[in-house]
Amino acid sequence: MGKLLKTIFVGVLGAASFGLLACGSEPGSPSPSGPEVAGPVEAPPLAPGVAKIGTWRGEWNATTQKLTFTEIEADNSAGFDVGMQPQGFDKVKSGKIRFSTEYSYVGEEDDEDCPLGRVCGRVRVENISTRLLNSVYVEIVSLSPAEYTAHDFSDEVPPGYPMSNQYGLWGYNNLGPGNAASRDWTFANPAGQSFSFSVRVLAIFTRTNYDLSFNDVSEPGNTGTADWDNYSPVWRDACTHGTTLVSSSTSSFAASITMPFPFTITNKTFSTNVGELWVTSYGLGWSKAPEPILPASLPASGYINTLFPFWEQVEGAQVCHSTEGLLPNRRFIVTWKNAHLKGLPNSNLTFSAVLQEKTDNVFFLYHRWSDGSDDCASGTSNRVRNESAAIGIQGDNNYFPSNPVGLFSPHAANCPGSGYFVKFEAQPANKFFPPSP
């Protein structure tokens, strides 16, 4: 390994700017003497669900042998309107990303890792926001001199994807809150001179799939005091300590809610500044979930990025919402309490949807189906046994699970039952961005 620089500077820029501060020049020191690079060149268009965090200028100073980064273009909320709402990104704005250079040095003739005529370094990217950043990429969009391209450790991009590795591209995959990753950067440097470049940092929020699990709910009598368990969820009732949206729901009930934290349903991230999450008698999400035609089934035409915890013709519910837990592990809860099936006024159903911060996981909790076993008998009350209901998550062109009605078979056999949960564990986006449309 070549000669390493031991001084490491790590920083987070303030509210007006954020991001990269790596092993670099001392304050007030002159800029490198190499050619100046223009502002960011026109880069490939972003695909839906992809957000640009910002653009920075990188400089290698041949005299000090330091690699530095400074911001030249702040994150622009107007650039987030393709595939996601800008406000949903507010938790990864200024001061939420940290870049640092672990080391940088000039190659030597006998160094196999960094031979003569190259500049090598290791760049660390840390996510200090409360938001999971999927498929983070750092892409060089301009370079001066142009022949000083990055190579060896630069990533390949499948044809048609909205990035380029012409000058250099590094994938940092999925960075959870507080997590960091490091990549080796290598540049051609035949003349041993200073050079500069501009980079943009991209991230994706699209959820491509959900893993499904279900079982009995723990402590069905709990009103919110039992500790939450991701693997064996306990019952949660937002009506015991939250805000009531309506005391007796009807088919026309709809209320918009501002999320307390960014949350993504498939390719839609909901705003924390504007009431974008719609809650109705039949579900919650980007679309106002309608009263279904029975038997209910998914996908539902015309409705996208919507959660259906119990899609049936229900009415008379007290509908409430609450937030619990501490940042960055909060849970947003919506409860439909003491609902009854339309046409079956003696039925009684209580259920909740729990949305988990940071992970985008969704839990559907079912406290009970009915107060009495008579409602679980065969015949017309098969609806109480959930034989006409559908549950699941619907995106813009996909839905989960593929057989949403079959999840209730344990309750059909054990109605009224003590409680049940269905967990949708959001999976990270694919390693690479989706192809451009």
Mean pLDDT: 73
Number of strands: 26
User: What is the radius of gyration?
Assistant: 26 Å
Shape: elongated
Structure classification: mainly beta
**Count of helix runs:** 1
| Uncertain segments | 1-41, 74-95, 431-437
- Report strand %: 35-45%
Distance between the termini: 44 Å
Tell me about this structure:
This protein has 437 residues and is mainly β. The protein has 2 domains: 195 residues, no CATH class; 217 residues, no CATH class. The protein is 1% helix and 38% strand. The protein contains 1 helix and 26 strands. Strands 11, 12, 19, 20, 21, 22, 23 and 26 form an 8-stranded antiparallel sheet that branches. A hairpin with a 3-residue loop joins strand 16 and strand 17. The two termini are 44 Å apart. The N terminus and C terminus are likely disordered.
Short summary:
Helix content is 1%, strand content 38%. It has one helix and 26 strands.
Keywords:
disordered C terminus; 1% helix; 1 helix; 437 residues; 2 domains; mainly beta; disordered N terminus
Topology (elements, then pairings):
Layout: E1 10-11, E2 19-20, E3 50-61, E4 66-73, E5 97-106, E6 118-127, E7 133-144, E8 169-175, E9 180-188, E10 195-204, E11 210-215, E12 243-246, E13 254-257, E14 263-265, E15 268-270, E16 277-280, E17 284-285, E18 306-311, E19 314-315, E20 318-324, E21 331-341, E22 344-356, E23 362-368, E24 390-394, E25 399-400, H1 409-414, E26 420-426
Parallel strand pairs: 2-5
Antiparallel strand pairs: 1-5, 3-4, 3-10, 5-6, 6-9, 7-8, 7-10, 11-26, 12-20, 13-16, 14-15, 16-17, 17-18, 18-24, 19-21, 20-21, 21-22, 22-23, 23-26, 24-25
